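Hi everyone, sorry if this is the wrong subforum. Our group has a chain we'd like a structural model of before ordering constructs, and none of us has done structure prediction before. Sequence below.
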Amino acid sequence: MGLLSPCVPKWTAFCRNFTANKSNTVMFRLDNILEKWAEIYRPLQHDPAAKSTHRTFFRISMIDAQSYFVRNFNTQPSPCMAYATHVDADMERNQKSISYRHVIYFLVKQQNAAGKTDVTDELAAAEARYDTDEMVQDLLAFLSQMQTAAGNSQNELKIGQHTFAITKDERQGWRGLQIDGAHWGTLPTHFNGWQICGLTIEQLQPRLLCVTPTKYID
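Answer:
Right subforum, don't worry. Here is the predicted structure as tokens:
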């Protein structure tokens, strides 16, 4: 105890400052930002109302897991977008940050020249795949602009008539978003005429190093 006691006040002060900064302890909620983007992005025009017939943004566990989205594939509007909410993270020994992975899917239903779904039409499949690639790149361009704005300490980013707020707590998250290392690719098989492209973006976030007293019973 005698060896540790000189360090305790310094460690206590560090923990107090660390946990007081909310951006250090709260996961960056990229999904909320993506949903707003989907509302104004012309190919999607997502309507967030619960009973809307034009919901094009969904939160799912995984693309092949049972969910409302997967069960209703045939009735979903095309194109659409999904964000995987399962947590995928790792941390190496002695590192002070956590590496999370954001997984995002773009889905386009392949249609033939007559506007009907045709799972045997390879030209339609190719065009649907290329459409998903274009949407991925549009999203990455938006995220890059948001990251630049956050890095310049701006409080918002305007796109047309729409404003995306950037809070002080979110700036840490934007700094940790590894856009330059993004990876995406189409799935080798289709889901009943849907072509799917998965996008993965790494997120670096400081690791919680201290016990938060308010999370424990007195």
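For your construct planning: The chain is about 35% helix and 25% strand. Residues 1-8 have pLDDT under 50 and may be disordered.
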